[in-house]
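Quick one: structure for this chain?
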Amino acid sequence: MIALLTGLMAFKAPSHVTLDVHGVGYEVLIPLSTYYSLPHQHELVTLSIHTHVREDAIQLYGFLTAAEKEAFLLLTGISGIGPKLGLSVLSTLSVRDLFSAIQAGDIEKLGTVSGIGKKSAARIALELKDKVARLHPAGEPAEPGSGRSANRLYEDALSALVNLGYRQPDVKEALKRIEKSGAMAQGLEGAIREALKDLAKG
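Got it. Here's what it folds into:
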């Protein structure tokens, strides 16, 4: 199962992107919230991935932030709400607005999403209210990377760089050096960017 992809932005559109990962192109479906924050074409990007397996296809859904992916998984865990509708919700409401509407039981706001009627909106509010409250007591979605432990960040950066074709021992050495420099505090994107610079020197 693919959980993370780091590659060059070969193509981007409001509904999907193509990532060039070491010569292999992956088509990834995305919400507008991710699209608006994507880098320019041919630049490096890391997406958190949800792999959706159907009888007739395997589809990849990508998100720039952990909060987006978290919201998507919560939504698609509800009966009757599939990945396509989950993307539609995130393309209409920010994660912050979505979680606030769920906690407030704001059926009207949830109902502004195309494909979400009053019954579906009520079901979303009912089924996710407690889950959202446990995850984010103040109704605030986690900031990108804020829930990522240092060890998880290291492992994700290691996996992404190895997927780009670098030797694991070289990557580990590069990550050790940027850890000492404090670059890991920049989050996953920053850690990968600094590690690439370090690897280029070698």
